[in-house]
Amino acid sequence: DLQELGHGTDTFGPIHRDLHLGNILFHGSRVGVIDFDLCGLGHYLLDLAVLLNALRIQRQDCFWKMRETLFESYEREISLPDGYRRYLMTFHAMRHVARLNRELRALTSEANRHRASGPHVLRNVVAWMQTSYLKN
User: Fold this and answer.
1) Fewer CB in 10 Å around end: N or C, the chain?
2) Which of 81, 97, 112 is where one domain is finished?
3) Nearest to 42 by CA among 83, 101, 95
């Protein structure tokens, strides 16, 4: 799926990779981003996928309105690629798999076993696939 998206400068370049609400600061009409530890090269849509996931979890009351406003605002600056919603689902699936892999590794590590929440994460991933990914 991502091969079709390509690596052109209109879809790929420097990204934050951890663009959740805790890393976005607002001051009046100004917006800033912090915590660039995971910054690197990637598809721009990955940053949108991370932000949308954070909005879905933390702002359920107005998620759909915020999502559409985000897309509209983004497109005022940069065009979203054709099929961007499908690509966003791919990025969501990739993030779920990465999270599940981290949890499975924690289960096999004596030092981290007590912090592992593998069964909870697995239930969430399966629920997401049933309600979101498989329907699109």
Assistant:
1) C
2) 81
3) 95
Provide the residue-wise pLDDT of the chain in tens; the chain has 136 residues.
Answer: 788 999 999 999 999 999 999 999 999 999 999 999 999 999 999 999 999 989 988 898 999 999 999 999 999 999 999 999 999 989 988 888 888 888 777 777 776 666 656 677 777 777 777 777 555 5
89 lies in the same domain as 125: yes
Q: Do 91 and 74 fall within a single domain?
A: no
Q: How many domains are there within the chain?
A: 2
Identify which of 28, 29, 33, 27 has the alpha carbon closest to the alpha carbon of residue 47.
33
Q: Up-side HSE of residue 93: CA atoms within 13 Å toward CB?
A: 16
Contacts of 46 (CB under 8 A, 6+ apart): 15, 17, 91
Reported pTM: 0.79
Indicate left, alpha or beta for 83 from its phi (over 0: left) and psi (-120 to 50: alpha): left
User: Mind spelling out the 3-state secondary structure of 106-135?
Assistant: HHHCCCCHHHCCHHHHHHHHHHHHHHHHCC
Give the structural domain span for 42.
1-81
* Alpha-carbon gap, residue 78 to 72, rounded angstroms: 10
